[in-house]
TrEMBL record:
GO CC terms, sorted: endoplasmic reticulum membrane
Organism per entry: Camelus ferus (Wild bactrian camel)
Alphabetized UniProt keyword annotations: Endoplasmic reticulum, Heme, Iron, Membrane, Metal-binding, Microsome, Monooxygenase, Oxidoreductase, Signal
Membrane topology recorded in Swiss-Prot or TrEMBL: Peripheral membrane protein
GO biological process: organic acid metabolic process; xenobiotic metabolic process
Superkingdom in the source lineage: Eukaryota
Protein name: unspecific monooxygenase
Binding-site positions, heme: 435
Protein family (similarity comment): Belongs to the cytochrome P450 family.
EC number: 1.14.14.1
Length: 490
């Protein structure tokens, strides 16, 4: 038989098999658009703006629907009620980590962000306990953040009120805070290794939010066999891991088991305690992955939010003026801001929340998965099925936040001007997999922003009405456009 005929027959069988598999799966799953063989629903989605596509599809199929990314079904949850029911009311059942092929190539199932089952639970429990022991959410870490805020101010003074791109300066501050917990040291803002790491964090978020990476995550074979920007991500993560490994080796040499200095020391001590346990999760692989996860997540999300925050404050001058008036009234010009001030600064608190709500940093969250076969809203969802939760649909809900596409701190203020909490504020996700460092991130955002606005007037180099706050990438994350501003000392 001719080789071409054999290939055609094999391809035909493969197509028929994929069609049969898709149809058999769809029987018990939520409704959704009809997938194409092999390609699934990828051609029906705007890979430049997945959130927009999900919003359109939810109007047709409701708040719970099925999409096929390649041959695999993914259940999409759209809107507050569906997201809350899954992540909070059924938190344990939806606590798995869903498919994210590119991240799986990097983490290989280790660490916190992309692990599952017993490993994930142990790594998360240990990390939370250790971070709290080193002051996360307490006065001791607040001292670190305040000191770093002072360093940030000094670095901004060096710009001499000249136009500057704040990207790296704003990345240094949160990175130094997490470094003080993990490595027990901070970097100078001009340190070459430091700036190289920050550049790689920024580059990775930018590439991971590109259309190409959305395609790669749908068709994992592309990652292994085709050239492209995904290889740059893998190279950058390898650089980070080699840096972390070097730090771990330094810690091994100077370790004092009776006097742990930081997160790495605590993990190494735990490894020693469990060295005879054949089932232990406290391994070298988990140490490298966990530290890399904390390092990256503790740096990039907060620094990107700060960068977006200053852009919004440049555009909305009246908002900035009201924040500075509140800072002058409550804190003054000479005392460092502290977390106790927040309860007496409802407008500033509302502005910080509105910044996070408006920018919607991680629009479709990290993927979840169901931990066993479950019944959800009369649909049967098999164990391991990936769940996509639209945080955009919660943060931009027009019933909770009137005119959600408008930046308006009043979304978090009541009629008397007091701060108003909202259950819809899921900027850090929700449930069992919500952001590990939420408390630290909230502290950093409040203290860094209030300290900057206490010491400087922000001046745009273009007319504020011409400032475009539209993200330049809208995939995994919303990446703000590059811009310059002047920090004018008060």
């Amino acid at each position: 038989m001719d080789l071409a005929v054999v290939l055609v027959l094999c391809l035909s069988c493969w197509l028929l098999l994929s069609l049969w598999k898709q149809r058999s799966q769809r029987g018990s799953l939520p409704p959704g658009p009809t997938p194409l063989p092999i390609l699934g629903n990828i051609l029906q989605l705007d890979v430049k703006d997945i959130s927009k596509s999900l919003r359109i599809l939810s109007k047709v199929y409701g708040p719970v629907f099925t999409l096929y990314f390649g041959l695999k079904p993914t259940i999409v949850l759209h809107g507050y009620e569906a997201v809350k029911e899954a992540l909070i009311d059924m938190g344990e059942e939806f606590s798995g980590r869903g498919s994210f092929p590119l991240a799986e190539r990097v983490n290989k199932g280790y660490g916190i962000l992309f692990s599952n089952g017993k490993r994930w639970k142990e790594m998360r429990r240990f990390s939370l306990m250790t971070l709290r022991n080193f002051g996360m959410g307490k006065r001791s870490i607040e001292d670190h953040v305040q000191e770093e805020a002072r360093c940030l101010v000094e670095e901004l003074r060096k710009t001499n009120a000249s136009p500057c791109d704040p990207t790296f300066i704003l990345g240094c501050a949160p990175c130094n805070v997490i470094c003080s917990i993990i490595f027990q040291n901070r970097f100078d803002y001009t340190d070459h290794d430091f700036l190289s790491l920050l550049e790689k964090f920024n580059e990775n978020l930018r590439i991971m939010s590109s259309p190409w990476i959305q395609v790669c995550n749908n068709f994992p074979a592309l990652i292994d066999y085709l050239p492209g920007s995904h290889n740059k991500i893998l190279k950058n993560f390898a650089y980070l891991e080699s840096y972390v490994l070097e730090k771990i080796k330094e810690h091994q040499v100077s370790l004092d088991i009776n006097n742990p200095r930081d997160f790495i020391d605590c993990f190494l001590i735990k490894m020693e305690q469990e060295k005879h346990n054949q089932q232990t999760e406290f391994t070298f692989e988990n140490l490298i992955a966990t530290v890399s996860n904390l390092f990256g997540a503790g740096t990039e999300t907060t620094s990107t939010t700060l960068r977006y925050a200053l852009l919004l404050l440049l555009k909305h001058r009246k908002v900035t003026a009201k924040v500075q008036e509140e800072i002058d009234r409550v804190i003054g010009r000479h005392r460092s801001p502290c977390m106790q001030d927040r309860s007496r600064m409802p407008y500033t608190d509302a502005v910080v929340h509105e910044i996070q709500r408006y920018i919607d940093l991680i629009p479709t969250n990290l993927p979840h998965a169901v931990t066993h076969d479950i019944k959800f809203r009369n649909y049967l969802i098999p164990k391991g099925t990936t769940i996509l939760t639209s945080l955009t649909s919660v943060l931009h809900d027009d019933k909770e936040f009137p005119n959600p596409e408008v930046f308006d701190p009043a979304h978090f203020l009541d009629d008397s001007g007091s701060f108003k909490k909202s259950d819809y504020f899921m900027a850090f996700s929700a449930g069992k997999r919500m952001c590990l460092g939420e408390g630290l991130a909230r502290m950093e955002l409040f203290l860094f922003l209030t300290t900057i606005l206490q010491k400087f007037t922000l001046e745009s180099i273009v007319d504020p009405k011409d400032i475009d706050t539209t993200p330049v990438s809208s995939g995994f994350g919303h990446v703000p456009p590059l811009y310059q501003l002047c920090f004018i000392p008060v």
